[in-house]
Amino acid sequence: MPNPADLAAVWLTLKLATVVTLILLLIGTPIAWWLARTRSAWKGPVGAVVALPIVLPPTVLGFYLLLLMGPNGVVGQFTQWAGLGLLPFTFGGLVIASVFYSLPFVVQPIQNAFEATGDRPLEVAATLGAAPLDAFFSVAVPLAKPGFFTAAILGFAHTVGEFGVVLMIGGNIPEKTRVVSVQIYDHVEALEYAQAHWLSAGMVIFSFFVLLALYTLNPTGRRK
After folding, report:
1. pLDDT tens track for 76-103
2. How many domains does the chain have?
3. What CATH number is associated with residue 101?
């Protein structure tokens, strides 16, 4: 059965995934909107940067984030100057690293949903006197609801399943940075296979229900 350390890791993982998903929805929506609507030559490079974590090894991303947030990095020097200390091996550091790592899993579904709505609904809203911001919130966002649903599920699930990035940035501090994936690794290293089994089986069940929700609850997946 799970011990207190396992439960603490589960709680920390759920807390991290919730915070990261909310942040990603806030910052990912304007990025997705811009990528869906712009005709700028910067669309390709920006889209490539957003999608980079999909193909980049997590340890590589974690390494460079560690350098940036370390004592000699630009971010690290700023946080020290601001009196915030250093972010590596803290929950805040985990959040920032996870936001970067899960960004494409939130931006891309929302971008696809915005692109699928097309220009016509916004043009109609404009002819009825709706300001651009009003049309965005009253027309574009409701029509893109399936994309937001998919983005929230994928962002949350991807954050829960992280290992390389969180290990590089957060280390292995009990109740502070030790998430479920790291806890499983610790159990395996200690040959505690029964404990590793409980957590691993929980991750398998969680992953199954995430996919089940994605395929059955998402409005785009239902037959009309």
Report:
1. 999 999 988 999 999 999 999 999 999 9
2. 1
3. 1.10.3720.10
